[in-house]
Amino acid sequence: MGGMLALPAGQGPHQVGCADVMVGHTRQGLFLRLFYPCLPRAGATEPLWIPRSEYCGGLADVTLGRRWCSALFSIAIGSCKVPVSWKGPFKPCSRGYPLIIFSHGLGALRTLYSSVCTELASWGFVVAALEHRDHSAATTYFCTAEAGTEEWIPFQRVPQGQKEFYFRNKQVHQRAQECVRALRLFQGIAGGRSVPNILHQDWDLSVLKDSLDLTKVAVMGHSFGGVTAVLALVKEPSFRCAVALDAWMFPLENVLYPEVPKPVLFINTEKFQTPESVAKMKRLSSRNSQTRIVTVLGTVHEDQSDFAFITGKLYSRIFGSRGTLDPHKALAITSRAALAFLQRHLKLEEEFGQWDELLEGVGDSVVPDVPFCRSKL
């Protein structure tokens, strides 16, 4: 694989396919990248990690405040591919795959969590990674009804003189609403509604119709997406549980904590969380005995995104110091904990059971068999 990025392939039994989906011709539509179990296909192509050059400009602006021009960014990572089959043939499943709606972090986009989305899809999930339109993505766009016309939605910093909480709180509500709309999209498809994918007619959403189990739906996200997942539980009873990777709890209003009805798995990195933020998570766990808070030692915030797999000095140029834990091990811990949690709360038949001890670690004990992971309950 070219460039400075080597993303891992999924470790589960299924090959993984991937397609972009855009529905609707307004901001109120949806844009997502779908990761799904697929059939093997000779000569499958792999999709670009950064799908278009516009995103390089957006990422350069977000991560580097233009300190480093986007041309260099695109030379360094523009040719990187994701090790999945682009628009590969969907593998039907009569009993239905469980569904995960995934929400990205601040300044990210739908592709920057390909490693964890691919891993989950390889174990038999359909994962819909949203690209949010609340001005929190590095940049994004929608296609107006006029042929070929795109309207771009740039990343926006907190406007001067505005309180950050109010700005972010409005965004988190929009994001959670988009998660609910994504679920509605799949419910519609499963109910036989014909939904055109306006990006490429050659990947037809109707192939999903009889292969989703929409009684088994979870919501997941990283950072701003982690708190988005928690809020989505409040807004939508069909979400059975949430997995929050290093959730940024700040934008959620206090009055909503008692309203979170379902279990959350918080998987935190060692360096990002503040005592205030963890206290907020503990308020949720005191209300819901199934909520778990786990900290993965030796990791930093970016380690839960694909950026963990950027090789060489590029990573430190952008983010500073990286975690001491090997990113492949960190990903394995994150996905094992998530799979064990999802198996329990979506009542899945698959045997992810050997990982149950990840959820049972109590106190400051080192969790059995996973020396890098400490439960902080």
Automatic annotation (TrEMBL):
The keyword Flavoprotein does not apply. One of its GO terms (molecular function) is 1-alkyl-2-acetylglycerophosphocholine esterase activity. InterPro entries: AB_hydrolase_fold, PAF_acetylhydro_eukaryote. It catalyses: a 1-O-alkyl-2-acetyl-sn-glycero-3-phosphocholine + H2O = a 1-O-alkyl-sn-glycero-3-phosphocholine + acetate + H(+). Its EC number is 3.1.1.47. The keyword Ligase does not apply. One of its GO terms (biological process) is lipid catabolic process. Keywords: Hydrolase, Lipid degradation, Lipid metabolism. This is Platelet-activating factor acetylhydrolase. It comes from Corvus moneduloides.
